[in-house]
Amino acid sequence: HTLDSNAPTVTQEFTKYNGTDTTTPYPNTDIRLVFSETVRDVNTNVGLDEYYNRVTAATTDSAKQAARNELGTILRNSIKLYVDDGSGREELVQDAIDLPAGQDKKTGNWTIDYRYAEVKVEDGKTVVTFRTTDDPNISALNLQSGAKYHFEIEPNTIADTSDGKNIMGRTPLDDFETIFAIVNLSNPNEDV
Q1: Residue 78 burial (C-beta neighbours within 10 Å; 0-12, 13-18, 19+)
Q2: In terms of C-beta density within 10 A (0-12 exposed, 13-18 middle, 19 or more buried), how is residue 5 classed?
């Protein structure tokens, strides 16, 4: 039995990208943050996947919403998404939970909704997935085309599940830029 003394690491993956360039996603991509091992919240010592399991296990709408809010709070405190405002400055993206009164996810200007992330353990690694869905109400992402983003893990918020409780420091991930929407022009008179 060896003592694990290494903090987890994290990489990002995109599910929709142009050709073979896996680092330049379409705006409607899902984003997977893959941790090198199972991870937990530093303050509560609860595995990130357990928060998601509470969402899927909830049997009433109110219990599901409460579990989503708890998941969202934990992820929002530890995983930040920044956007380049065009002048080289980066700012936090708009979280759907902060939409002003009278706006919803169909009409409001938002980029991420941590409450709708999925967290699972795959091959001993915690994977946090932010999905883009056709229904904005259940989507976790609303990326713009041609925008430059990057994720960052906040320091002292995520740890591994070992007895050593190795805690991650500030961990910026690589910038990524969504590609501009591509219009497929075809002759409307041609038989398809």
Answers
A1: buried
A2: exposed
